[in-house]
Design goal:
Elements (H helix, E strand, L loop, with lengths): L3 E2 L14 E7 L3 H10 L6 E7 L2 H10 L4 E5 L8 H10 L5 E5 L4 H10 L3 E4 L5 H82 L8 H32 L7 E3 L1 H18 L3 E4 L8 E3 L1 H18 L5 E9 L4 E8 L6 H4 L23 H11 L4 E6 L3 E9 L6 H8 L6 E9 L5 H14 L5 E6 L2 E8 L4 H18 L8 E10 L4 H13 L8
């Protein structure tokens, strides 16, 4: 049975009715229902009452319309006790339930709340004000609960979406890593497969050029010489491809050590002179350079110099001029190695593009020179790895000047330039010191230096402070002070076992400082320089 009592608005609400609360009263006792309706008759908010005399009737009402609150007795014709609350809660979890009870038992009241009811109203004590406030508060609490449930559901959905997106990104990342590794392996294998027949071709061309397979004339010798040079070009292009792949993947080895500039120039002199002679270009190479010892990877510096020299030669017409020179820039504590040419020059807007991958802004006059355009890009990156920079000055029709810098041994610029290379995901810089026993022989010191050079990884910096002390700067993701220290100690111990017939390495290792890369570079460098002055004081984080 259902009874509906129309609301009776007060005089204060006659002009504007704020809202209407729809209440379902589940009560089989008509007197109790009339008492509830009497208590709810007056108030600022209008209340629309619906009456059900059994649980079944209440469930039917909930099927056909929505209610703001449910007031129910525990004892009904078709249900009794807490089962009434549980079944109503299961039917409409988002509607607050208030229990009308004649019991005054705290244990029963706790069970009512535990079953899912929001509150309870003692039948004999309830009055108009109390009943209304209980209903309004129950509705407000349920609205808050519903809003929290909605927000929680949205957050859970967002969390699932983010987790799915993270999983997709991880899958894409793994796929890209596999593709990158496959490409790197392909380049390495292709390079190996191409070099083998190329070596055979060069050997046979050399045999013919030298006249060992029969006499040849000068024109034939010149053609064979050009074939040999072009074979070397192919080798250089293969090196460029492999180095570009290694640079992108962080696998390129870098070994910075004291290096004489004369040795760098002498090691590339023959190949550059051969190329200049083929193009009929006059080549001048500055020799007997009076400059301090450079701190660099000598092999990388040679690659840069060959790249700049070959580009300069290719930029010249016949009877052009190319000059290789060296200068010591004492104020900046670095050595400049440059290449001048009087070739076609470069447009100003193109100078900034020279270090871009595959860029070819007209630096050659040779129509047969089909370069990949990787040379200058790799040269610029090699210069950065050598803690220097590549520079260009040019004007169309007047030639170009290319030069790169190398820091000198003991320069104050070495450490801050290395710091500039550090990037995400690295977060910290750690400094270790290696001390040798002062009683070590020169041979033992030399072996120790080779050992420390071997221990230095690509992203690290090894600086010799004295004959018996070295500094190792390393970057890491976490501020784990002991990880690199333990790794170096274990590696030294392992290599000592290999040197069974030689004395053990007598090297002391100590952590000297660790800094966050979020700090400015000049602050980290100042702390490092202070360490050098205050040896052996400890650095602070």
């Amino acid at each position: 049975m259902k009874t509906s009592i129309p609301p009776q608005p007060s005089a204060a609400d006659s002009d504007s009715l704020l809202s209407v609360l729809s209440v379902l009263v589940v009560e089989d006792n008509d007197l109790d229902f009339l008492q509830v309706s009497k208590n709810l008759r007056h108030g600022r908010k209008r209340i629309s009452l619906s009456h059900a005399t059994s649980l079944g009737a209440a469930l039917q009402e909930l099927e056909i319309r929505d209610f703001d609150v449910i007031l129910t007795d525990l004892c009904l014709p078709d249900s009794s006790g807490l089962d009434t609350v549980k079944r109503l809660k299961a039917k409409c979890d988002a509607i607050p339930i208030l229990v009308l009870t004649g019991l005054d038992d705290e244990a029963v009241e706790r069970e009512i709340l535990h079953a899912g009811a929001q509150d309870f109203l003692p039948k004999g004590l309830a009055n108009s004000s109390w009943t209304r406030k209980a209903i309004e508060h129950a509705v407000q609490r349920q609205q808050s609960i519903n809003e929290m449930s909605r927000v929680t559901a949205e957050l859970q959905a967002s969390h699932r979406l983010l987790r799915e997106q993270a999983e997709l990104r991880e899958q894409d990342h793994q796929k890209l890593e596999r593709m990158h590794q496959t490409a790197h392996e392909f380049l390495a294998k292709a390079s190996h497969d191409i070099r083998n027949p190329l070596t055979v071709i060069k050997e046979h061309v050399s045999i013919v050029r030298e006249g060992l397979a029969g006499r040849i004339n000068l024109e034939q010798a010149a053609m064979l010489e050009k074939a040999l040079i072009r074979a070397d070009d192919v080798n250089n292009k293969l090196d460029d491809l492999l180095d570009s792949s290694k640079l992108d993947s962080g696998l390129l080895d870098i070994c910075r050590r004291p290096c004489h500039v004369d040795e760098i120039i002498d090691s590339v002199r023959a190949s550059i002179e051969q190329r200049a002679a083929m193009r009929n270009v006059k080549l001048e190479i500055q020799s007997q350079v009076e400059a301090p010892v450079a701190y660099c990877d000598g092999q990388k510096a040679c690659r840069v110099l060959v790249c700049l020299a070959v580009n300069a030669i290719n930029a010249c017409n016949d009877a052009g001029n190319v000059r290789i020179w060296v200068r010591y820039d004492e104020p900046n504590q670095h050595i400049r190695i440059g290449v001048n040419d009087d070739g076609i020059g470069i447009q100003p807007r193109q100078c900034d593009q020279l270090a871009a991958r595959f860029a070819r802004p007209g630096v050659t006059t040779d129509p047969d020179d089909k370069l990949l355009g990787l040379g200058l890009s790799i040269a610029a990156r090699f210069c950065r790895l050598n803690l220097g920079q590549l520079h260009v000055e040019s004007e169309p029709g007047l030639g170009s000047i290319f030069w790169f810098s190398l820091p000198v041994v003991g320069s104050d610029q070495i450490f801050p330039r290395w710091l500039e290379l550090q990037s995400a995901p690295m977060q910290y810089v750690q400094l270790l010191s290696f001390h040798l026993n002062e009683q070590c022989t020169p041979a033992e010191k030399r072996d120790s230096e080779l050992l420390l050079t071997y221990l230095t990884e690509n992203h690290e910096l090894l600086i010799q402070a004295s004959d018996s002390q070295w500094w190792l700067a390393t970057s890491s993701i976490f501020p784990d002070v002991d990880a690199r220290l333990k790794k170096a100690t274990d590696e030294i111990a392992r290599l000592t076992e290999v040197r069974a017939a030689n004395p053990a390495f007598d090297i002391g290792i100590q952590t000297r400082g660790i800094w966050s890369l979020k700090r400015p570079i000049d602050e980290i460098d100042a702390a490092y320089q202070q360490l050098l002055q205050d040896e052996p004081s400890q650095a602070t984080r």
